[in-house]
Design goal:
The chain has 2 domains: 2-226, Spore Coat Polysaccharide Biosynthesis Protein SpsA, Chain A, CATH 3.90.550.10; 232-408, UDP N-Acetylglucosamine Acyltransferase, domain 1. It is built from 9 helices and 33 strands. The structure holds uridine-diphosphate-N-acetylglucosamine and calcium ion.
């Protein structure tokens, strides 16, 4: 199996944030999480080494809590990308296979591209493969310098480049696949005699050529995949790109999305064909939505939501950590959280599952069985079960389990005081 090294020690000054750059999120998932997942989802990578520096504790905490196959390695001070990779040397002493090197701030890279990249490296029997891309405006990137025969000679950083080199539009995407056994010794030989006084990872290209290794470049077809995050504007743009990618995929799979420009759907949401997503929905986290559902307008799915077929989630309905069986409707102004809801259920307007006890900080479950009708403006105080076919009258405050086919009413009886207004004028 392949190992990955993910560079994430940099400061990210332009984010103007108290948080480390790679912990900024898209759909609540940190940027570095996207990169780890892209590597892991190739099915070819079994371990990730994350190089951390600035606010290392915070990044480490996130990684340790979320990724069992990933280890953070501290780089202090940060002396450059080559120095960053060398932090992994003690951990990969015996390792002889391939290592891919990625950046923690390029969340749009896909596992499909990484797979293709690794296959290219293997087919070419390459020792060092760098990912390149063609940019109309290559400013600030390292330039790929090719030999007459098309082989890769070196990478020259913008700050070290002469006029002729600056004119090159083929850039270094910052992703590498290397034969670790053959290349690892390069990391102890890198020099920092360059414009930035840094140990450049890019210098392994020259080193590889000097040491008669096979050095190649794989050219990326979709430049979007290496879009890097350096500012909040970049973050907003990347969110948009990722959303568009998800929406296009869902459209191609037969989902109707009425207004893609106002719809946000996380990449971890599956939606069945013939489901309609109306304008201005925000669908976050991991969700599975069936066929022929209707969602929105203005619905908010917050993750861990499973909807079977023919479910309706209408306007101003928020759903979290909830399973809903087929042909159930929650059409207006409702919160459903920590719930299991059966099929053919009608959830009246303004229904709330009160699942959180702020005193004990415990969240409890609401269970609603098949064919239940919940009247408008009801509060279901969890833990609570509404058994099959039961009805809850409007404005029900339900604190006990309701047996099957019963009617539960909790409201005060209606009183009509004749002529009360004229008498009190
Ligand atoms: C680097 C490449 C450049 C390439 C570009 C692609 C080098 C010398 N240059 O330039 O050819 O076109 O990426 O985006 O590699 N990092 C560390 N420790 C360090 C320095 C950096 O972990 O000591 C991390 C940063 O957090 C970042 C990544 O490495 O995630 C890239 O570093 P950065 O300084 O942004 O490199 P560039 O100058 O953009
Ligand atoms: Ca730099």
């Amino acid at each position: 199996m392949i190992k990955s090294i993910i560079l994430a020690a940099g400061k990210g000054t332009r984010m103007k944030s108290d948080m480390p750059k790679v912990l900024h999120t898209i759909f609540d998932k940190p940027l570095v999480g996207y990169v780890i997942d892209a590597a892991s989802n190739t099915g070819l990578v079994d371990e990730n080494y994350i190089i951390v520096g600035h606010q290392a504790e915070l990044v480490e905490e996130y990684i340790n809590n979320n990724y069992k196959n990933s280890k953070c390695l501290l780089q202090t001070p940060q002396l450059g990308t080559g120095h960053a990779v060398s932090m992994a040397l003690p951990y990969l002493k015996e390792f002889e296979g391939e290592v891919i090197i990625l950046c923690g701030d390029t969340p749009l890279i896909t596992s499909e591209t990484l797979k293709e990249f690794i296959n290219f490296h293997k087919e070419k029997a390459s020792d060092i493969t760098v990912m390149s891309a063609y940019f109309d405006n290559p400013a600030n990137y390292g330039r790929i310098i090719r030999n007459q025969d098309g082989s890769v000679n070196s990478i020259v950083e913008e700050k070290d480049a002469n006029k002729e080199q600056k004119a090159v539009k083929e850039i270094n995407a910052g992703i590498y696949c290397i034969n670790w056994g053959k290349v690892k010794s390069a990391f102890s030989e890198l020099k920092n005699n360059n414009a930035q006084g840094e140990y450049y990872l890019t210098d392994i290209i020259k080193w590889g050529n000097t040491n008669n290794l096979s050095v190649n470049a794989y050219t990326l077809s979709d430049n979007e995949e290496i879009y890097g995050i350096n500012s909040k504007a970049n973050l907003a743009e990347a969110s948009k790109m990722l959303n568009k990618r998800t929406i296009n995929k869902l459209l191609s799979e037969g989902v109707t999305i009425v207004a893609p420009e106002t719809t946000w759907i996380s990449p971890e949401t599956e939606i069945g064909p013939d489901t309609i997503i109306y304008p201005s929905c925000y669908i976050n986290g991991k969700n599975k939505i069936g066929k022929h559902c209707k969602i929105g307008p203005f619905a908010h799915l917050r993750g861990d939501v499973v909807l079977e077929d023919y479910v309706k989630i209408g306007n101003f309905v928020e759903v979290k950590k909830t399973t809903i069986k087929s042909h159930t409707n929650a059409c207006h102004l409702t919160y459903l959280g920590n719930s299991e809801i059966g099929s053919n259920v009608n959830i009246g307007a303004g229904t709330i599952t009160a699942n959180y006890n702020p005193l004990t900080k415990v969240k409890s479950k609401t269970i609603i069985k098949d064919n239940v009708k919940i009247g408008s403006n009801s509060v279901l105080v969890a833990p609570v079960t509404i058994e099959e076919g039961a009805n809850v009258g409007a404005v029900g405050v339900i604190t006990k389990n309701i047996p099957a086919w019963a009617l539960a009413i909790t409201r005060a009886p209606l009183r009509i005081l004749e002529n009360w207004v004229t008498r009190n004028k």
